[in-house]
């Protein structure tokens, strides 16, 4: 099902520098050193950007997706995300495998790091990203870069998007987050611990007043002109919205959690669409936080129960 009739269809770009194949195993209890038999198994393409692409496809919002992939995977990826347009950069390394182990009260992740892609592929990705971004209404940059791509790519991307008036959402941590801070995007969407680590050593404080004070200070430092905002995800609590010197907690709906892996990617996908449609910060954050929570009730990242996807479509229509 697509977006509601008469709703604008914006030009979206998703940059996917680290795609993966996700395997999700539901088990009764992990027993180290023993044979663990799965009760159910799910399989899908994944990685942060492809999880965001999945939620956009489910609610009927088409995007252009730029990604690396070995040639033998191209047709299968396009078939899995048939609504989207694809620019796939061939690489010789196999797509990485990530594994989720679901127990009744927790989920564990086994994550294979992204391999080098080679100079030619990295250069092709960089040039295509700059070319496509300048023609879009909103761009999502998320996921770890291959080890042979410099984080400076993100600094340049943010600079070009700002010059072209393109709404850029950056979901990053570590060196990539610091690269974005050199040229802040329209919206930063790290998680709260990642944002804290970019400015402080030590553990994130539990005190809500200290968190608010930190976000106000950081928001004003990053966006002294008020031309940007931060949405820092905070797990089951929701996400902190910092904009123009104001900070508020956007609470998450309560759900029975099956798999929380990828919920932040679902949030990023919704924020990309909301940014392209010109929705105000608070309703955008409310829709994105709700979607991230609802995804936790399903086994696959970036996928909602269909009745919740319908609620999102109605919500988008109401706020436009």
Descriptors for this entry?
320 residues, alpha/beta, UDP-N-acetylmuramoyl-L-alanine:D-glutamate ligase, nine-stranded mixed sheet, four-stranded mixed sheet, 10 helices, 38% helix, 23% strand
Report the average pLDDT across residues: 94
Number of helical segments with 4 or more residues: 10
Structural class: alpha/beta
Provide the CATH top-level class. Answer: Alpha Beta
Number of strands: 13
- Structural domain tally: 1
Low-pLDDT windows of residues:
none
DSSP strand content: 15-25%
What features would you describe in this structure?
α1 (48-59) crosses α8 (263-277). The mean pLDDT is 94. The protein has helices at 48-59, 74-80, 119-133, 152-164, 174-182, 192-199, 208-222, 263-277, 281-295, 306-319, and strands at residues 12-16, 20-26, 40-46, 64-69, 85-90, 96-103, 106-111, 138-142, 167-171, 187-188, 229-233, 238-243, 246-251. The protein has a single domain, classed as Ribokinase (UDP-N-acetylmuramoyl-L-alanine:D-glutamate ligase, 3-Layer(aba) Sandwich). The chain is of the alpha/beta class. The protein has ten helices and 13 strands. Helices cover 38% and strands 23% of the residues. The strands form two sheets. A nine-stranded mixed beta sheet has the order 5-4-1-8-9-10-11-12-13, sandwiched between helices. It starts with 11 loop residues before the first strand and ends with a helix.
């Amino acid at each position: 099902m697509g977006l509601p009739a008469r709703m604008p269809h914006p030009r979206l770009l998703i940059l996917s520098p680290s795609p993966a194949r996700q395997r999700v195993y539901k088990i009764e209890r992990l027993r180290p050193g023993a044979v663990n038999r799965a009760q159910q198994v799910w399989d899908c393409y994944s990685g942060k950007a492809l999880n965001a692409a999945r939620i956009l496809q489910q609610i009927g919002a088409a995007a252009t997706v730029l990604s690396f992939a070995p040639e033998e995977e191209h047709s299968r990826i396009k078939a899995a995300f048939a609504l989207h347009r694809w620019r796939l950069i061939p690489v010789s390394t196999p797509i990485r495998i990530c594994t989720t182990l679901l127990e009744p009260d927790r989920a564990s992740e086994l994550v294979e790091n992204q391999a080098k892609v080679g100079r030619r592929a990295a250069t092709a990705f960089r040039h295509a990203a700059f070319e496509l971004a300048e023609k879009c209404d909103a761009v999502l940059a998320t996921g770890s870069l291959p080890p042979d791509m410099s984080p400076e790519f993100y600094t340049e991307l943010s600079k070009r998007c700002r010059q072209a008036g393109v709404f850029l959402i950056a979901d990053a941590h570590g060196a990539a987050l610091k690269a974005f801070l050199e040229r802040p995007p329209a919206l930063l969407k790290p998680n709260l611990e990642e944002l804290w680590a970019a400015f402080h050593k030590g553990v994130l404080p539990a005190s809500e007043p200290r968190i608010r004070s930190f976000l106000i200070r950081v928001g004003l430092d990053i966006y002294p002109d008020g031309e940007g905002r931060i949405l820092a995800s905070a797990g089951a609590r929701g996400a902190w919205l910092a904009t123009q010197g104001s900070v508020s907690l956007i609470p998450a709906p309560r759900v029975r959690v099956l798999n929380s892996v990828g919920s932040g990617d679902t949030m990023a996908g919704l924020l990309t669409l909301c940014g392209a449609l010109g929705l105000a910060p608070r309703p955008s954050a409310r829709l994105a936080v709700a979607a991230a929570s609802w995804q936790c009730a399903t086994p696959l990242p970036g996928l909602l129960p269909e009745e919740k996807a319908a609620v999102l479509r109605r919500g988008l229509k109401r706020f436009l």
